[in-house]
Amino acid sequence: MFKDVTIAMKSTRSPILPLALCSLLALPASAQAASFDCGKASSQVEHLICTDAELGSLDETLGELYRRALGDAGGAAEALRAHQRDWLAERNGCDTTECLADAYRERVAALRIRVDGPLGPIKERELPGGEVEILQQGPLVELKAKYPRLEGEDVATTKANRQIATWVRQQLQDFRQDYLSFLDGNQGDHLGPPWAIEIDAAHSYAGERFWTLDFTTYSYTGGAHGAFIHQAQVFSRDQGEPISPAGLFRPGSAWLARLAELSYARLSQREPFDSDADHDWLRTGTAPEPDNYQVLLPLADGLMVIFGQYQIGPYAIGIFDVLLGYDELAGVLNPKWFGD
Fold first, then answer.
1. pLDDT of residue 33
2. In the CATH hierarchy, which fold is given to the domain comprising 118-243?
3. How far apart are CA 32 and CA 42, in angstroms?
């Protein structure tokens, strides 16, 4: 850090310092941290960089990262230079420190991907209560997951826990691969806002004959908004095997028709479906089709049916759920799991 100094000058002609020297001395000490000589700053952007401590530091950091990335680029060096020229053209369109700071932070993060790698280390730990947390933070991507461990050391519990952990890790790995493919498609550069995924368990229930887990996944890969989905996982307590949605019901029963009838009746009485609006979207999303009833959560008080984004209406209405009492489903439930 440079300290302010007082310069005394003796002159028989004039006490006024030369204009160029005055300009240089007027710049804050942080200006010297820029990647170029602030004494030769000529454009508005350069002057903004040289008079702002954060911008000066960002410019110096970017310069160092660019030199390192260029040294490692090999045959991709010319493409990297072209990207840098494009970015400089965009940067030079800024006329405020806020605009410049945003541009620099985005470019620094993109160059860190090239220099330090895009994903960062994976950190895993067990939380109080037995939950497992997985974190991974890259310059422009973040992965988070948290999932419970079922209590017990028997074969069935161990098997179910292994399948839960495998599923969560596979979701994260798929996201990583999508992100790396995205970078490959852009010659290693991250274009646009940061990516993120977060997995958590929203509902869990331990019944006498099964375990129920509702995993929620939020992911953002650019665009106007992210995606939020539910994934039901139900396991038998005797074998630790997954139970499919159809497996919850008596073979040969009209379970889809029953779910469709009850779900439509409940939802049509709730906002925004209780108006005189056209219900075609709602009818389609609750129709007795297997794809409409993939997120089924058998809980203590009944069977929760979850309808995802865009399933029964536009994005703005969000996600809906309906809790159906077990008495309403009498005759179609599988007695193996729910008794006679």
1. 57
2. Heat Shock Protein 90 (3.30.565)
3. 15
